[in-house]
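Input sequence (158 aa), recorded before submission:
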Amino acid sequence: MQRHGIAGALALAAISAPFGAQADAPGLVGRWHWNPAQSSSTPGEAPPQDVLLVIESASPAHLRWQLTIVDPTGGRHTQSYDGSGDGKPAAVSGAPPGTTGALKVTGNSYEAVYTNADGSSDRSSCSLSPDRQKLTCRGTDSDGKGHSMAYTDVYDRQ
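Predicted structure, token format:
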């Protein structure tokens, strides 16, 4: 489930580069909802009941978002990020201790690397649809012990 928190939120916040290095991307600021029907789930794990991302600021110079995940049992978990989109690592609040995200924005897409203190990581690439109503993220989770899994997450604008 951590994948939905970190990958989804950084993905959405990161793809604002075509609007200028200092200006917010008005197309991304707002609310985004995870689409479970178009996303892949981890085999053997129940997917979250809901994932909602609220992007407050989105530019390569500054990203700020808050993510709320409703887990399979109904528990709510909140994560937030307040950092840059220039590839420098920054902490993800509400994620496991030691979790950082580093992303590099390029046009309407981005590459991201998320690392955790236990050695696990997530690498993803996300792109915005031409109508700016859907975001598709493809990535790979690694447990840091030689096991990895590919995934796809799709988000719809609310």
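Checked by second reader. Residues 2-14 form the longest helix (13 residues).
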